[in-house]
Amino acid sequence: MSEPRLRSVFFGTPDFAVPIAEATAAVTDLVAVVTQPDRPKGRGRELASPPVKELALARGLPVFQPAKLRDGVLAAELERLKPDVAVVAAYGRILPKDLLDLPRFGCVNVHGSILPKYRGAAPIQWAIASCEAETGVTMMRMDEGLDTGDMLAILTIPIGPDDTGGSMHDKLAVLGGEIIREELPRYLSGALKAVPQDHASATMAPILSREQGRLDFTLPARILDCRIRGFSPWPGAFTSLDGGLLKVIRAKAAESPEPAAAPGTVVSLRPLLIAASEGSALELVEVQPEGRRVMTAAELVAGRRIELGKRLGSEERGA
């Protein structure tokens, strides 16, 4: 007769966490799910359940949605379930010590970066925006810090030239499920050795704000391309044209035909090139003018007056 599987609880909230929750259920006896409270969503502001809650309900699992974590109530509820391990992925809140210490194998987190790089709320987006060649997921034993726990396993994936924050989010969610399927049983059997992070090499990935999508043409086009892709779909990349907002949906780095042109200057119409620093230019491929549909750069040039020498974003700089 085979030994009974170890009992687990899962902490997670958004779509990213769903494949990881499914993997947890595949290799352990998942006995409960903890997720964020339902939130208003959409134009009607009706309450919507987190994706992880929907998964739990479909599986008939108990769901906890505490508004507070530090009052001891959740810890008491989970203690009755006697979990051997907790798996955490994109839960959205820092767990207090009583929850971290509750399972006998502790709390295992799946983080969307190659730690110690990109600790924090937006690791997927910042890895692309920082022009990294690869990213991945790290499975770690949680402590009371922010993504500072000892590492148990890492899976990596290259960042392609067309990858965006959205596309890499989906890839890493799948990879997160893989690392749990492959490595959580090894951890629970004692086959994995925890490795401390090099805290001196840590970088942060702070939560994104709308303003971080504003394009700064004093940067090299290579970096602008990375930021456009990293910050897609949110907050998105934008500049201004004739006093109105111009969203940049897709672009790519190129050499400038006028290396001495001021940053933000239109230096070519076909293709539509905008001067950046270090002799580079950003080729706009798809854009969305304020109040208009998404269109190609060629359609933008054909449909309105964009002459050579015009400066995008000049209203923002007071030029």
TrEMBL record:
Gene: fmt
Protein name (database record): Methionyl-tRNA formyltransferase
Record keywords: Protein biosynthesis, Transferase
One cellular component term from this protein's GO annotations in UniProt: cytosol
PANTHER family per record: METHIONYL-TRNA FORMYLTRANSFERASE, METHIONYL-TRNA FORMYLTRANSFERASE, MITOCHONDRIAL
Keyword Protein biosynthesis belongs to the record: yes
Family label: Belongs to the Fmt family.
Domain Formyl transferase N-terminal: 8-180
